[in-house]
Amino acid sequence: AQTVTQSQPEMSVQEAETVTLSCTYDTSESDYYLFWYKQPPSRQMILVIRQEAYKQQNATENRFSVNFQKAAKSFSLKISDSQLGDAAMYFCAYRSGVGNQFYFGTGTSLTVIP
Amino acid sequence: KAGVTQTPRYLIKTRGQQVTLSCSPISGHRSVSWYQQTPGQGLQFLFEYFSETQRNKGNFPGRFSGRQFSNSRSEMNVSTLELGDSALYLCASSRGHAEETQYFGPGTRLLVL
User: What's the pLDDT at A97?
Assistant: First the structure.
């Protein structure tokens, strides 16, 4: 089974600064999709960004970007110009290209310091 | 377009009872997946339904079951509740293809006493 590892249980960042959240995964598949979801205190899971494994270009979504290293099986999330509203639990997720099951990491709790 | 809705939002049950949770996907979405979220185990996949058929199943006991109706709405049932079943239950919908994003509902918080 695929595994997703988030080695940083907690992170903090000053408002307006940049922070990077780490994620590694283990798979023998070549076709898969990677996601970052955000879960604020409301518990609603919100998609932040997604990356297709077959794409070499790193995905970017406004202040959010990823560093996708396929050979290293690494998928980190960079948040630029951090805002108070970015404070949440962030989950990295893997989805197989041949099945629809998501595998989630254990999450990183991000605190934004004013 | 309306998002994924889950009812009820909060539920309190006692051990041994059974519970049914409901999930209405985004219009046009045919896949509904269920997840259990607990502080100790994190997010764990329960099962996925697509076009009224269970397509994937996680590693949960048979007390956890589900079904999907022709309008893609899905229900999850837990029988003989245990204290450890206290969790946030999330459902997520998509059109059903692996490359698509899953959109999550707000969850049902179940407390078993």
Answer: 79
Check CB contact under 8 Å for A42 and B33.
no
Cross-chain Cβ contact B99/A33 below 8 Å: yes
Is B42 in Cβ contact with A100 (below 8 Å)? no
Q: Which residue of B has its CA nearest to A6?
A: B42
Could you count the other beta carbons within 10 Å of the beta carbon of residue B72? 22
Distance from CA of B43 to the nearest CA of A (A): 6
Low-confidence ranges of chain B (pLDDT < 70): 1
Question: Which tens digits make up the pLDDT trace of A64-90?
Answer: 999 999 999 999 999 999 999 999 999
* CA distances, A59 to each of A55, A68, B34 (Å): 9, 8, 27
Q: Is A11 exposed, middle or buried (0-12, 13-18, 19+ CB in 10 A)?
A: middle
Query: Which comes out higher in pLDDT, residue A43 or A18?
Result: A18
For β-strands A108-113 and A88-96, DSSP reports them as antiparallel
Q: How many A-B residue pairs are in contact by the CB < 8 A criterion?
A: 58
Provide the pLDDT for residue B26.
96
Kindly list the residues from chain B whose CB atom is less than 8 angstroms away from the CB atom of residue A98: 98
